[in-house]
Amino acid sequence: MRGAVRQAVVGIIPELEGRVYDVYPPDGAVEPLFAAITLGEDVWKSSWAGYRQVVRLKLYANPSELLQLDRWANQLIPGLHRKRVTGADGNSFKLHYLGVPEADKFDPSTGKMIRIMRFGVYVPELSGAGFTGQPDEWLSALAAWTGDVLGNSWSIYHTAWPAGRDDCAMLWRMTGCETRMAGASMVEVRKTFTGHIAALDSGSEQLTAVRLVEELGTQVQLLLDSQNRRYASVVEIASDMQADPILDGQLKLTLAQRKLRSPEEAALIRRVNIQPILK
Predict the structure, then answer these.
(1) Strand pairing partners for 223?
(2) What is the pLDDT of residues 164-195, one digit of tens each?
(3) 149 and 103 in one domain?
(4) How much is the mean pLDDT over the chain?
(5) Bridge partners, residue 43, by sequence
(6) Residue 7 CB: number of other CB atoms within 10 A?
(7) Ranges 102-116, 248-262, 264-278: which has the least confidence
(8) What are phi and psi of 40, to 5 degrees?
(9) Where on the tree of life does the source sit, at the highest rank (predicted)?
């Protein structure tokens, strides 16, 4: 990971070639501008996002070169945020800009001013490859329907994010399931889902969220099994444009399906009382 981030930084700022060090610059470094990469803590976030590895990029500059430091920071933020980075081993991951944790400070050992920039990398808990098991039937149908609506430019995942998701990607995960009695011989099954929309910018995410809300709002039924003609009905769909696309998800969806109860489960008539009409 460290080497891949270094190459990404040098690709954005070629002047840092050979000047991006591990953890701390070597003793006697005399370059007016250089950088160092430090891998921070792993923080558990969720079963679908996994752990978040914090990457700290430290930019060093002479006190007289602070304007250049500002220019580099302004290049690195859009150049790295939400961008896919691929290492020498072929493994890919996405960087997410987390901000500057503290003000610029003077480092007496190097005589430089330091600016620390934090980036996050989400690492799935399942061998770095996301969920690979057989999904729920409704979840699988929902993912397939979403792929048809959004087209080939979008990658649709279920249950958990992979390590190196595509630039335009969506994740559906099931968040709840319940049954309700719908009469003596019917039962209604309801399942709730959360949809995560991740693109290169928030504007694209919002437009995609609106499109899916409108499409699902007019989609009376979702096909589950064409051979047996089984469907799930769309009960409710809502969006929260301020939700984090990786951790929280912008879409909340409820699907329902009614089923006949088996004869063993249906209520039996044990007694009938007849009340005559008295005149």
Answers:
(1) 231
(2) 899 999 999 999 999 888 776 788 899 999 99
(3) no
(4) 88
(5) 52
(6) 14
(7) 264-278
(8) -95, -150
(9) Bacteria
**Domain-embedded: residue 64:** yes
CATH number for the domain that contains residue 164: 3.30.2000.10
Predicted TM-score (pTM) of this structure: 0.82
Collect contacts of 151-157 with beta carbons under 8 A, ≥24 apart: 154/208, 157/130
Statement to judge: residues 52 and 166 lie in one domain: no
Q: Do 255 and 143 share a domain, yes or no? A: yes
The residue range of the domain holding 162 is: 137-260
d(CA 16, CA 32): 11
Q: How many CA atoms lie within 13 A of 278 on its CB side?
A: 1
User: Are β-strands 112-123 and 96-99 bridged in parallel, bridged antiparallel, or unpaired?
Assistant: antiparallel
Instruction: Return the structure tokens found at 209.
Output: 């969220």
Question: Among residues 232, 234, 255, 235, which one has the least CA distance to residue 176?
Answer: 255
- Report residue 32: phi and psi, to 5°: -70, -25
Under 8 Å CB-to-CB from 87, ≥6 apart: which residues? 1, 3, 4
**Strand residue runs (E) in the chain:** 20-22, 33-46, 50-61, 84-86, 92-94, 96-99, 105-107, 112-123, 155-158, 169-181, 186-198, 221-225, 230-239, 251-260
Do 144 and 112 belong together in one domain?
no
Alpha helices, DSSP H only, in 31-120? 66-80
CB 221 within 8 A of CB 181: no
Backbone phi and psi for residue 2, each to the nearest 5 degrees, phi listed first: -60, -45
**Whole-angstrom Cα distance, residue 157 to residue 162?**
8
Which pLDDT score is estimated for 127?
47
Q: In the numeric block, which tokens belong to residue 241?
A: 């444009």
Q: Which amino acid is at 236?
A: E
